[in-house]
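Lab manual, section 2.4: Encoding a predicted structure.

Procedure: take the sequence of the chain (201 residues), apply the prediction step described in section 2.3, and record the output as structure tokens. A sample record is shown.
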Amino acid sequence: MLLKDLTITFCRVAVWTTLAWLIGLLMGYLIYRSRGLRAFTLPAVNFFRHVSPYCWLPLIIIAFGIGEWAVGITLLVSLVFHSVIISLELFNTLPKVVMEQAKLDGAAGWRLFREIELPLSLSGILDIYRVLWGVGWTAIIAAEMLGVRSGMGYRLLDFRYLLRYKEMLGYIAVIGGVGIIIDLLLQKLKSRLVKLTLSFF
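Recorded output:
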């Protein structure tokens, strides 16, 4: 039962964290490249990221029902707006001298991104995923209480209702332990990916 719940929760976090990461990077980069888009979208992004995703639960349930989609959308809302802001700040920290010199040398568009912006920001991009994963691993527990009948969050709620506190504490220990292990693995993966990717530039 524990292994099944852990696998289901892991898959949910992996799917929705990756989606939030990709959306956040894309939006952050587009806002970074366009002042008009920044003025138009940044206030809305800041508004939504300061509202707890659980405030939207009634609307999420009305729109998607109780179940798997509600869990996923809740997790996505928990992550994506923060991902946009962190990504934007990352791109804003790229050295202006290097960027201006690259543009003078004729780099623009895809070439500028591939040869300059991506290598300079790659480590930070991977760090964003690591941070989002940690937040997602925390948020999923509450999200899994939205009508699904599987996962670590559902099981914790079930244990609470059944007064099975020993099992509940065991699950909490596993959640914390797995979180630490995943974080360490992501750090090692980041180091290898950075070395591998930079070797192509």
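Check your result against the sample. The chain has a mean pLDDT of 87.
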